[in-house]
Every structure is written in structure tokens, then in C-alpha cells.
Write a structure and sequence with these properties.
Blueprint: E1 3-8, H1 12-25, E2 30-36, H2 40-50, E3 56-57, H3 60-66, E4 71-74, H4 81-90, E5 94-98, H5 105-116, E6 122-125, H6 132-142, E7 149-159, H7 162-165, H8 174-177, H9 180-183, H10 185-196, E8 200-208, H11 242-247, H12 252-255, E9 273-280, E10 285-294, E11 296-305, E12 308-319, H13 326-332, E13 333-334, H14 338-341, E14 351-358, E15 364-369, H15 378-387, H16 401-420, E16 424-425, H17 426-430
Parallel strand pairs: 1-2, 1-4, 2-3, 4-5, 5-6, 7-10
Antiparallel strand pairs: 7-11, 8-9, 8-16, 9-10, 11-12, 12-13, 12-14, 14-15
Length: about 425
């Protein structure tokens, strides 16, 4: 059955992940009937990139009044997700929302309550569940490879290209994004929750700004008008990208949003160095760190259990030589394993290893080939399950509102813990809002 979809938020993610693929690859099952954005210029650019004259609106309610709609896709700024989700649910629409579902506990409770009062259903798009590597790990854990799980050690690294970008965009304010522990780490917390099939109970966290914001040496309003373009290692030439010029520079006079704001601005209030301890309801403990100024990008994890230790790692990016200039770093950034690079192997990764160390000795390895496509092939697999009916889901890849809540509440609790210096109980954030 063909369904009608509308999209709210016509930035790069909304266009690239949903709008263009719907028109190009899913037109037999999906019709994109409306676009909504507070910035009409961005909406105009979106239409041109999509290649179809889809009705556009700056008012969300007007769009729902005027075009046929079964499902609302939310890809707007994180702090506005709840507005569109709740309005759509009250009209009985299904909702597909980008992560994070929202940014604080009050909005989370409001979304859960609205869904229970509606015939509509929420899907949260955790594309990282869908990569071949994370899927294989889920299978092995389901098979009991480590036995009873005791603890998780998890470290996520963002480099000076990708990591820095969060501090020049709207994400740099917690009022917009909830900080990286909500906006970014919701992916990470969800994948652990999904693997463990468990819910978090308590969070204790610490966080600081060590590199960005007021900690920085150079400072200006934005890169385009800065006097430190020659010496600043984070100088970003937005105008050199024709698509960025069209989508952002041509639209900034309308809403004042600068895509190349200074990463050392005083107003930045999100952390760049974070550490958490998480206790799950079943007693499993997780230690987690996130740093956003690393010389490489990727993640490492160990899952410890009664039968042994599962070691996991993904190398997303590495600079083959030292490059202080950001544009040069971008040109040499490849998916190289930094450990292999230390031994002289600069070949890009085409697969990832899962290593299992039984408690009393030995090792077993599982090699997983990387998939092509966005986010390790996760985007394509997620879209298929979103738009095409009847695809089996034995491992529970698709996530609803409760999974969305459990992932963001770890980050929300962490933000509160950082602010107060005290551990935070997840149930206190829900205020008695039970599952089911």
C-alpha cells in the first residue's frame, strides 16, 4: 500500500536520508506530499535537489491541513522535535523521527504521553543498529557467546574534523541539542541497550570543555569573516563547497544561522570531554567516554561476561600524516586503523573484526565485511524497513518511542549529573511514567 509522507526540516539530513531516496527509490510505496521548514530559502533549495515541485510550507499545521499525510518525518533541530511529534500524534499520524527523539526529560514525558493518547506510532531512526557489524554482534550475544553479561567498557572518539563541526553548528548550545551526550551519544547508548536487552537505572557523569569554546586560542564570530584564517587549525571554508553555499549561505540572511560559526565562541556550553558510569536494572555496569578532539575517529568496546570477553572496534577515520590545516586534513582523512598505521599499514579498512577471548584462554575471531552506503550501510537498510512492508525483523532492529526514551535519558541524566555532581536515577526523570 502506498503511503503519503511529509517532511519537516529540510537540511542536509532530511534531504539526503529521506526526501531524495523516497522520490528516487521508493516511489512505488511512498509519496512525498509536503515539505516544511522555518526557512523558505532552504526549502526552495531542497525542492531543487529533490528534483520535484513538492508543496512547501513554513507553518507545520497549515501543511497538515492542506496535503494528504499518513506519516510525518521529523528532521528539524533537536529542540523542536517534540513540537512536531506531538502535533502529528494528536492528528493520528504516524511519526518517523531522527535521533535524538528529544532533548530533555519533560519533553520526553510529553511525547510518551501523546503517543499513548493517539492512534499514531513513533519510530526512532537508529541507523547504527543496521550495520552488518553491529548486527553480527547482536547475533553473537543472542547466541550467548559471553554468557551472563557483567560489564561494558565503551570509548567513542570524534576527530578534529567531524568532532569540531558540532561546535560551529547549532548543536553547540544545550538548549538546541542537549549536548553531545544527547545528540550524538543517543546512538551509542541505544546500541548498548539493544545489545544488552536491558534498561538503564542510574547514571553518574563528569564533563568539561578542554578544547572548544572559551578554552580556545583564536576567536571570531565566524570563519568567513575571521582574522585568524591562516593560523587557526579549525578554519572552515564554507564558501568552497557549492552545495553548502546554496543550502546555508544563501539562506542565512533569513534566520541568521551561520553554518561556520567559531568553534571557540564564548556562548558554547556543551562539553567536549565526557565520562559516564551507567548501572542497568539487571546489574550490568557500563563505563563510557566521549571525546571530540581526537587524532582519529571510531570506537572501541569490550563486553565482559561469565564465558569471556568480547572485544570490538571500528576505525572510521585517520590522518595519514600530520596536517594542521583543516582542508588538508579533510583531503587525507581515510578509514585507516590507527593501530595498524603505527605499524606502517595505511591501507583503508574493508572489514572489521570481532574478537572473543574465552575466560580460560584462547581467542576466536569473526570478520565482518563493511557495507557500502551511508553510516556503514545502515541508512539503506533502515530505509528499506521504514518504507517497505513485510521485511522480517527477528533481531528487533526497528526502534519505537521507549527505545528512543531509554537512549536519550542516559544522556539527559548525564547532563544533570554533570551539573549537580550527583548520580541520577532514570525513573526520577520519568516521574513514574511506566513502560507499556
Amino acid at each position: 500500500m502506498k503511503r503519503n509522507y511529509v517532511l519537516v526540516g529540510t537540511g542536509g539530513r532530511g534531504i539526503g536520508m529521506y526526501a531524495r531516496p523516497m522520490v528516487k527509490d521508493y516511489s512505488d510505496v511512498a509519496e512525498l506530499t509536503g515539505l516544511c521548514d522555518v526557512n523558505p530559502r532552504r526549502m526552495e533549495v531542497a525542492r531543487s535537489w529533490i528534483g520535484r515541485d513538492i508543496p512547501g510550507f513554513t507553518d507545520f499545521d497549515e501543511m497538515l491541513d492542506k496535503v494528504p499525510c499518513d506519516v510525518v518525518i521529523v528532521t528539524s533541530k533537536d529542540s523542536t522535535h517534540h513540537e512536531y511529534i506531538i502535533k502529528a500524534l494528536r492528528r493520528g499520524k504516524d511519526v518517523i523521527t531522527e535521533k535524538p527523539m528529544t532533548i530533555d526529560a519533560e519533553k520526553c514525558r510529553a511525547i510518551l504521553a501523546a503517543e499513548r493518547e493517539s492512534k499514531g506510532h513513533i519510530t526512532v531512526t537508529f541507523n547504527y543498529r543496521f550495520t552488518p557489524y553491529t548486527t553480527r554482534i547482536k547475533e553473537l550475544l543472542r547466541e550467548g557467546i559471553v554468557g551472563d553479561i557483567y560489564s561494558v567498557e565503551f570509548h567513542w572518539f570524534l576527530d578534529t574534523l567531524h568532532g569540531a563541526d558540532y561546535y560551529r553548528r547549532w548543536h553547540r548550545r544545550k538548549e538546541n541539542s542537549g549536548g553531545l551526550l544527547v545528540h550524538k551519544a543517543t546512538h551509542h547508548f541505544d546500541i548498548v541497550n539493544w545489545w544488552l536487552e536491558a534498561e538503564p537505572r542510574l547514571v553518574y557523569a563528569r564533563g568539561k570543555r578542554r578544547v572548544y569554546g572559551s578554552a580556545g586560542k583564536f576567536r571570531g564570530e565566524r570563519c568567513r569573516t575571521c582574522s585568524h584564517t591562516q593560523e587557526c587549525p579549525f578554519y572552515f571554508d564554507l564558501a568552497s563547497d557549492e552545495r553548502a553555499k546554496e543550502l546555508y549561505i544563501s539562506a542565512e540572511h533569513i534566520d541568521g544561522y551561520y553554518r561556520d560559526s567559531c568553534v571557540f565562541a564564548e556562548e558554547i556550553d556543551i562539553e567536549d570531554t565526557m565520562a559516564l558510569l551507567v548501572e542497568y536494572k539487571n546489574g550490568i555496569q557500563m563505563s563510557y567516554t566521549l571525546s571530540s578532539y581526537m587524532p582519529f575517529e571510531g570506537w572501541r568496546m569490550a563486553i565482559n561476561g561469565s564465558k569471556g570477553r568480547l572485544e570490538l572496534s571500528v576505525a572510521d577515520a585517520f590522518y595519514s600524516t600530520e596536517a594542521v590545516n583543516l582542508k588538508e586534513r579533510a583531503s587525507i582523512r581515510k578509514s585507516i586503523d590507527p593501530f595498524k598505521a603505527a605499524l606502517g599499514d595505511m591501507s583503508p579498512e574493508t572489514s572489521d573484526l570481532i574478537r572473543f577471548y574465552p575466560t580460560f584462554g584462547g581467542v576466536k575471531t569473526f570478520e565482518v565485511k563493511r557495507a557500502l552506503g551511508g553510516h556503514g550501510g545502515g541508512d539503506e537498510r533502515l530505509r528499506d524497513m521504514l518504507f517497505r512492508e513485510g521485511i522480517p525483523d527477528p533481531l528487533g532492529h526497528m526502534a519505537g518511542s521507549w527505545a528512543g526514551a531509554m537512549s536519550i535519558l542516559i544522556g539527559i541524566a548525564a547532563n544533570e549529573s554533570i551539573a549537580t555532581g550527583r548520580p541520577v536515577i532514570i525513573e526520577d526523570l520519568l516521574k513514574g511514567f511506566p513502560e507499556g
